[in-house]
What we know:
Strand 5, helix 2 (81-89) and strand 6 (94-99) form a beta-alpha-beta unit. This protein has 218 residues and is of the alpha/beta class. The protein is built from six helices and eleven strands.
Amino acid sequence: MDFNLQAYQADHLLHLSVKPARRLCVLENARHRWLELDGVVQSAMSLSQPSHLCLPHQRSIAERLPERAGQILELGLGGGDLTRHLAARWPEARHDCVDLDDEILTLFQQFFLPPTGGTPRLHHADALHFLLESREQYDLVLLDLFSQDGNPLLLFQTPLYRALAQRLCGTLIVNLLPRTRLEQDQALKLAREWIGPTTTHGVPGYRNVILHATRQQA
């Protein structure tokens, strides 16, 4: 059951926190549980099928996953929709999830953990710092970072892609919400320069643009 972003209604408020910079809540109805940031749905979980992807941009990402992944890194967690999907798809995979927001990590553990499959290793860290400190090699990296007004500037700067190139030996998928065409073109340029062949995929009816890159060893 997909989540209707135009007509959803909540029956229960499971969590609410209000800070000067944001309002974060977890809501639920008979079919779904979801995470909202400043009134915008960030992720949604089917209560009957937790590994099902309910949002269009996530299904677009799933269409571009490799046939197999044994070492997975997610940079940006949210409600963990793709985390649950990947845990069900590849339960034996080694899976790291990184988020700078410790409250997001706590809410994931309280409300959105996968019911089956492997439990991911959670890291409270800055994405770039984690990449620079890690010595792991990943065959799949999912990059889904957002600030209050869209993607952080990090996604359009060389240091992130240079660090990714050191840790990646397979597929990179980036969920972009570009404010301008220049941002999209810059992310595409950097991915091609540092990772390898890269394609872009729009999500019909949404601003999301999915970058799909394959690591090309030097």
